[in-house]
Amino acid sequence: MITSKTKNNATALRNIWLIEDNAHFRRTMQWLINRAPGMQCTHSFESCEDALAKLEEEELPEVILLDINLPGMNGIQGIEKIKLISPDIYIVILTVYDDNDKVFDALCAGASGYLLKDSAPEKIIDSIEEALAGGAPMSIQIAHKVLEIFSQLKPKKSDYGLTSREKELLQLMTAGLSRQQIADKLFISFHTVTTHLKNIYSKLHVNSKSGAISKVYKENIL
Amino acid sequence: MITSKTKNNATALRNIWLIEDNAHFRRTMQWLINRAPGMQCTHSFESCEDALAKLEEEELPEVILLDINLPGMNGIQGIEKIKLISPDIYIVILTVYDDNDKVFDALCAGASGYLLKDSAPEKIIDSIEEALAGGAPMSIQIAHKVLEIFSQLKPKKSDYGLTSREKELLQLMTAGLSRQQIADKLFISFHTVTTHLKNIYSKLHVNSKSGAISKVYKENIL
DNA sequence: TAAAAAATACCGTTATCGCGGTATGGGAAT
DNA sequence: ATTCCCATACCGCGATAACGGTATTTTTTA
């Protein structure tokens, strides 16, 4: 600790790591980061495996810039491994791939950001800072894809003509309550619950609690 | 068209609308936008209803800044209505609410961005530009929530130590089959199915088919 | 205001489920 | 080799669910 303090004047330099198999791009990025005020690229690696080995033995970086197409383990798998060792590291993807699946998988796996390699150098530096601040830096094309993913996420509400009361019953059903429990909760008779369920089943074209609950989840009813 | 060109010199002023019920905040925002180079706030409204009426009759804005808590129709519902009339308008939410549900619902409904009202004025103007460029401007807290939503989206496969046979049974269960039907399908005895279900319930800590199915979907088992 | 729809309530029969057991053969782990 | 786990099978009891009715009240809509 003391040595690092004496080595350079800044006490608050943020550690950035780089995982990138293209040697030229790696060196360019390293130079770029070290040139940026307040940050330093302490290590760079050609593969996730190398980086993971280093992670176990020494002080951790705050941000890792991570390529996707790598020899051995790919970047997406890498995210999971890294997060397993140290969940607090911010991982920003830096790649040429902009297809929906990669974006989706990377963000699901725990990436904090997703940049394309054609980003302007300042944009990359800004993005590291944004990641450090807890944000989600993304290239504009990627941000657009994220919006697309969201709008695909919640499609129809095919509610099969269920009344609001019936939906209420359904909700309690999915919580695992029995008819009697539902009746108690809603202050109605057991028989009323039975009748409602009958109607619900007929509207959903199922003939059991299990069928109804499955349908609710599969088709996003409620 | 001609009049608008003669009225002001700039031919490429971007039209921004504002839907916001707080009169003071509305005026401040309007002033802020009109002061920004390249954009003008041509209309502002207190409710979605008012804005929707105007949308039908005259030239469209490129971006709408939209509050969520509004008299009458709320902002989320408003998004859907607006997109129905003109899907190309970029809608940026500007609100004080930062809960997961609102963020999720807004983005699913088609919002292009989500800002908190405590954002710096320059950040708001930048965000409008980012929206116009096809991006997804968000306050840093919101970006963080988006990441959270993603990581919840495809999380664990906490399989509770289910055996592969048990998973098979579970799958058939979620299709709504009864014990006898499952038995027939798998060419095993009714009693065997019963035993499996017993074990599944105990592993999942539930005590009914309904509970098991709900758990399967909620926690992404299978 | 009349008609329609939704929510409420009840009954009886039969089927299915949940839970307490016990038990056995086969395979994997140690 | 022996223990442990998995998949298999069986039993009985009481609870719950499903299905077929009928019917009243409240709310909504035409």
Short descriptors:
5-stranded parallel beta sheet, 11 helices, homodimer, 12% strand, DNA-binding, 54% helix
How much strand of chain A?
5-15%
Supply the helix-strand structural class of chain A.
Answer: alpha/beta
Helix content of chain A: 40-55%
Low-confidence stretches of chain A are 1-10
In N-to-C order, the SSE pattern of chain A is HEHEHEHEHEHHHHHH
Number of strands of chain A: 5
Radius of gyration of chain A: 26 Å
Total helices of chain A: the number is 11
Which protein chains make the most extensive interface, counting residues with beta carbons within 8 Å of the other chain's beta carbons?
A-B, 40 and 39 residues
The end-to-end span of chain A amounts to: 55 Å
Structural account:
The structure is a homodimer of 222-residue chains. The first copy, chain A, has helices at residues 2-7, 23-35, 48-57, 75-85, 100-109, 121-132, 140-153, 164-174, 179-186, 190-204, 209-218, and strands at 14-19, 39-45, 63-66, 90-95, 113-116. Chain A has 222 residues and is α/β, with parallel strands linked by helices. Chain A has a 5-stranded parallel sheet with strand order 2-1-3-4-5, with helices on both faces. Chains A and B meet through helix 5, helix 7 and helix 11 of A and helix 5, helix 7 and helix 11 of B.
Q: Can you summarize this structure?
A:
The structure is a homodimer of 222-residue chains. By secondary structure, chain A is of the alpha/beta class. The first copy, chain A, contains 11 helices and 5 strands; from the N terminus they run αβαβαβαβαβαααααα.
